[in-house]
Design a protein that fits this description.
Number of strands: 17
Order of helices and strands: EHEHEHEHEHEHEHEEEEEEEEEHHE
Number of helices: 9
Bound molecules: nicotinamide-adenine-dinucleotide
Helix content: 25-40%
Structural class: alpha/beta
Radius of gyration: 20 Å
Length: about 375
Amino acid sequence: MPEQVKVGVIGAGKIFPAYVAGCRAFSILELAAVADVDTDRAAQQAAEHGVPRALSVDALLADPAIQIVVNLTVPKVHAAVSLAAIAAGKHVYSEKPLAITRADGLQILHAAAAQGVRVGCAPDTFLGGGQQTCRKLIDDGWIGEPVAAVAFMTGHGPEGWHPNPDFFYQVGGGPLLDMAPYYLTSLVNLLGPVRRVAGSSRISFPERVATSPEHFGRRLPVEVSTHVAALLDFAAGPIATLITSFDVWHASLPRIEIYGSAGTLSVPDPNIFGGVVRVRRAGAAEWSDVPLLFDAEVGRGIGVADLAYAISSGRPQRASAELAFHVLDVMTAVEESSAEARHVLLGSTCARPEPLPLGLLRGELDE
Ligand SMILES: NC(=O)c1ccc[n+]([C@@H]2O[C@H](COP(=O)([O-])OP(=O)(O)OC[C@H]3O[C@@H](n4cnc5c(N)ncnc54)[C@H](O)[C@@H]3O)[C@@H](O)[C@H]2O)c1
């Protein structure tokens, strides 16, 4: 068993408790401290969730015992917070998106390489039992050669439930940067990197009205596209259709389907770790549910644990900054394509992350 790695979290908001629970499920991780610009919030979350220390951001970064900084701030400051952690000599695991511009994403990659530290990035849901079972089915040839895919995220936005809904409609938010990372990371894990994209996007409503109890009736100006449709040509050949939308009240679309030369794979919601995996091979009269071959009970934190194992053994981390940068490049290209009325060829690529091995014990990963 490798040595425990001390983790400091920056950003003590809505998603913080999920990371506390998720990280605690892995004995390689020791949650040592939490920080937030809102120091009261950090102190309150630390007390509520039993995190030993609530610190200022500067104090957390200056603590030599902290090895990994988990960045759970809002998207528009992801890059600044990750770069500060890298400059302090810390490994980083960031919430998605890695950054909100290609330039900032590249700066993170270069700074990490120069400092000799690792950067990982959410989502890590592709390491859950649902998505890993799909990966094994594809790699083992159950649907033959993938030729096409669809991915649909349709909803009416988070202003009805999120306590701080503003960032979802500001630059860096929207259904593309906020939600497409789940769908695109799943597709890249299953099909490999994307070669070129075409996109159309719009702001359907110039303002939204919060209906969460904390902000009922408050108007939220909309700075980013809220309905985005895209075509993605994968380097290996498949063509995917992607819709991400905060403008749809009701739909009966699948989340992700992969169409292969020998059958179809129904992939569960890529925003969760489990879900139902279904296959229908050519000639089959019915869909078959496939038992999950990997743990579906893990949560947000498996990506941090995988980073800790990777640092300890020297192997690549699966939820890597390279993968997240490629996903950011795809999303940026979708908006460029829409604005410029042309296909956009991608400048980045990445390797498919290594699949998880079968038979891992709960709370452990491969070294
Ligand atoms: N809420 C969810 O369900 C959810 C799910 C998955 C991923 N995420 C992602 O997690 C991240 C955080 O989301 P959230 O919902 O917890 O947001 P949130 O607004 O509830 O929390 C963000 C926290 O970051 C702090 N913060 C902002 N700027 C900071 C800075 N410069 N330095 C230190 N702290 C700073 C804020 O004070 C706040 O406490 C986002 O990237 C989001 O996309 C959220």
